Amino acid sequence: MQTWPDDSLLTVQSLAPLMISQSDNTVTDHLIHLVRREAIEAIAPCHRPFLSTREAREALKRAYSI
């Protein structure tokens, strides 16, 4: 995704394969934003609050003072 032009169309169809095949955290965070955190939490209430990969990484850094 880093090599894509800035005006590239970001869709679930274009992002999901990258998230799965490359384990791309940036793509994962874009999909979370696209789908909306509230929608994810509505179908997976046990994962509230649902954190983006960036938020989870920052929480771990704070917890372990990394």
Distance between the termini: 27 Å
Helix and strand sequence: HHHH
Average residue pLDDT:
88
- Seen as an oligomer or otherwise, the chain set is single chain
For the report, how would you describe the main beta sheet? none
Shape, please?
globular
Number of strands: 0
Category by helix and strand content:
mainly alpha
Measured as a percent range, the helix fraction is: 55-70%
Quote the beta fraction: under 5%
Q: Report the uncertain regions.
A: none
Count of discrete alpha- or pi-helical segments spanning 4 or more residues: 4
The radius of gyration over CA amounts to 14 Å
Explained architecture:
This protein has 4 helices and no strands. It is mainly alpha-helical and 66 residues long. The longest helix is centred in the last third of the chain and has 12 residues. The N and C termini lie far apart (27 Å). The mean pLDDT is 88.
Give a brief description.
This protein is mainly α and about 70 residues long. It contains four helices and no strands. Helix 1 (about 10-20) runs antiparallel to helix 2 (about 25-35).
